[in-house]
Write a structure and sequence with these properties.
With 399 residues, the protein is an alpha/beta fold. It has 2 domains: 118 residues, P-loop containing nucleotide triphosphate hydrolases (Rossmann fold, 3-Layer(aba) Sandwich), CATH 3.40.50.300; 266 residues, no CATH class. The chain is 40% helix and 17% strand. It has 16 helices and 14 strands. The strands form 2 sheets. Strands 6-8-7-9-10-11-12-14-13 form a 9-stranded mixed beta sheet, with helices on both faces. It has a 5-stranded parallel beta sheet with strand order 2-3-4-1-5, with helices on both faces. The longest helix is centred in the middle third of the chain and has 20 residues. The two termini are 24 Å apart.
Length: 399
């Protein structure tokens, strides 16, 4: 099993809270992780029809059979259990009593917020980070723009292959052909998970909607145009986008609001969380196709954004990441808000650093009225990491 960066956070929470919940996309490794971390616990998968029927028909009797701590896998399929779990933990108040996992974020969290508020620690497990793939220690986000790691191992594959494979654990653990596995993964998602989350009658229209979203990864979200291109209403497009978010397939990166004397863009940017799935949806057939593909920059940017999200979630933190753009089109790809400091980050897929790469950072520092030597970072598709006046330059595998 590949060691996961989130392990320390989950084990720490299980010593403090009676319920620990781990959500994330299917096949991100939730079950493997919790069974390894809590190997003395009873384990129940609520995917099993007989066990699920027992839990739904007699929730009290179902839970009473577990005299010690228990893992309840895919618990969003039996939301009726949450009220009974609340009763048990209120009576016992024993840390680590229940470990819950689920693949559907808003259904699970909605049930938790109603019944287990204050009793439950919630974590999200995304597919593998590149730190986990190469067994490296992640650079703390607060050190970005100040420190360049010198001891990180390089990936065994080139950048194109890295992006094309994506980061689902099974592809790496079993050395599977990415596109075959992702095709089956996506088909299962459409035919099963989507219909469980919401009542979507026309799966072909939803498939078309997802593909159109893939074509817009890394762009400002325009729901009206998206709905028009897909032949659906604006309301339907918003609902379907929520389905993609709840399934951990996409995230919305919000704009960072600072009054820099110009009107700021208020629309979020859309990103897919796994570049392998993004390549599949864009019908990219092999890694070499990425070299000159029109979406290469967007795919690389999606990769960097998803890596930052994994850093935050694996540490049990909220992802305080944004982008900055004004009405004149001046833009910084990622803004890291540390509360007491802000770090601008530019992302460029090119393998050669050119002066234009720093245009956004330089302009942002000017209008933000911060010191020229304040922390800033450029993450690019080349292999060298160096210091430059006004910014640290990071290779794609070294941040």
């Amino acid at each position: 099993m590949i060691k996961r960066s989130i392990e320390k956070s989950i084990k720490g929470a299980a010593k403090q809270y009676p319920v620990v919940t781990l959500t994330g996309p299917r096949q991100s490794g939730k079950t493997t992780l919790v069974r390894a971390l809590f190997n003395t616990y009873d384990y129940v998968s609520l995917e099993d029809p007989e066990l699920r029927s027992f839990a739904l028909e007699d929730p009290r009797g179902f839970l009473q059979q577990f005299k010690k701590n228990v893992i309840l896998d895919e618990v969003q399929r039996t939301p009726e259990l949450f009220s009974y779990i609340q009763t048990i933990v209120d009576e016992e108040d024993s840390p680590g009593r229940f470990i819950l996992t689920g693949s559907q974020n808003f259904l699970l969290l909605s049930s938790i917020s109603q019944t287990l508020a204050g009793r439950c620690a919630i974590y999200h497990l995304l597919p593998l980070s590149q730190d986990e793939i190469v067994s490296a220690t992640s650079l703390a986000v607060g050190h970005l723009g100040q420190i360049i790691p010198t001891d990180r191992p390089t990936p065994v594959v080139d950048l194109n292959t890295h992006l094309f494979q994506g980061f689902y654990p099974r592809i790496h653990d079993k050395k599977l052909e990415p596109q075959d596995w992702l095709k089956n993964y996506y088909r299962t998602y459409l035919e099963r998970d989507v219909r469980e989350i919401t009542n979507i009658g026309d799966l072909e229209a939803f498939r078309r909607f997802t593909a159109l979203c893939a074509g817009r990864s890394g762009q400002l979200l325009n729901l009206s145009n998206l709905a028009s291109d897909c032949g659906i209403t604006h309301t339907t497009a918003r609902r379907w986008l929520s389905v993609l978010e709840a399934s951990f397939l996409v995230i919305l990166l919000r704009p960072h609001h600072r009054n820099f004397r110009k009107r700021m863009v208020k629309t979020p940017k859309l990103y897919f969380l796994d570049t392998g799935l993004l390549c599949y949806l864009l019908r990219i057939k092999k890694p070499e196709d990425l070299t000159f593909h029109a979406a290469r920059g967007a795919i690389f940017e999606s990769f960097v954004v998803s890596e930052f999200y994994k850093k935050a979630l694996n540490a049990g933190q909220d992802p305080d990441y944004f982008f900055w753009r004004d009405s004149a089109g001046n833009e910084v790809d990622i803004i890291i808000d540390l509360g007491n400091a802000v770090i601008p980050v530019e992302v460029k897929a090119g393998a050669t650093v050119v002066p234009d790469f720093f245009k956004g950072i330089d302009y942002w520092k000017k209008v933000a009225e911060v010191d020229e030597e304040s922390p800033a970072a450029l993450i690019y598709g080349g292999n060298s990491s160096v210091s430059r006046k006004g910014a640290k330059i990071y290779s794609w595998w070294n941040f």
